[in-house]
Amino acid sequence: MQEFVTQLPRATAPRRLQLNLATGDKFKELVTPYLTTGLTKGIPSLFADVKALYVDKEKQQAIENLVESLREEYSSLSPDADVEPTMYLWTLYFLAQHYSYLSQHTKALSLLDVALKHTPTLPELHMFKARVLKRNGDYFGAARCLNDARLLDGQDRFLNTKCGKYILRAGMVDEANTIFGMFTKVSSHTT
User: Fold this and answer.
1) How far apart are CA 124 and CA 120, in angstroms?
2) First to last CA, the chain
3) Over the stretch 7-44, which tens digit does the pLDDT of each residue have?
4) pLDDT per position as a tens digit, 133-189
5) What is the 3-state secondary structure (H, E, C) of the chain?
6) How far apart are alpha carbons 143 and 133 in whole angstroms?
7) Which pTM value belongs to this model?
């Protein structure tokens, strides 16, 4: 596997495949640059990429320990440090996904609140908070959060549709109808 990493230095697939095979200290050695690169680049799907590794509890714990230590490191940095401020944001987002996946919704919501104070204009944060609230049974709160995400980009059909779906789930049919009506065309064709 290492020869593929050497031959294709920019490819992520060989690095990701190594994580499936590695164990113990070798896993920690390989996962550290993989996760820090993803957090540096601000890849929203980073957690979805590595959650398959969670079948191995040791790997899950190693990932949690690493990302928690990065959060501690980034939160204590001064504003003039040589680290992108978005790394802290994406670290919080990753950890919120991690804890929500482990059904620790209160911890996930707490991290999302910190992330939203840091950057309130990122729709992904509002969307994921809505998902966590939905998983926790708070359908009205979930609808409110998804509406906040929708308001950040009113032209985004995906956000409008998702918001309408969450509003319907909360039982607010008239409000959902209004949302869906914003981007549907009235047919001018008469028969």
Assistant:
1) 10
2) 64
3) 556 678 888 898 999 999 999 999 999 999 999 999 99
4) 999 999 999 999 999 999 998 788 899 889 999 999 999 999 988 888 877 766 665
5) CHHHHHHCCCCCHHHHHHHHHCCHHHHHHHHHHHHHHHHHHCCCCHHHHHHHHHHCHHHHHHHHHHHHHHHHHHHCCCCCCCCCHHHHHHHHHHHHHHHHHCCCHHHHHHHHHHHHHHCCCCHHHHHHHHHHHHHCCCHHHHHHHHHHHHHHCCCCHHHHHHHHHHHHHCCCHHHHHHHHHCCCCCCCCCC
6) 9
7) 0.86
Residue carrying structure tokens 């990932």:
63
Size (the chain), residues: 191
Domain ranges of the chain: 1-108, 120-184
**Class of domain 120-184 as given by CATH:** mainly alpha
How many Å apart are CA 22 and CA 1, to the nearest integer? 11
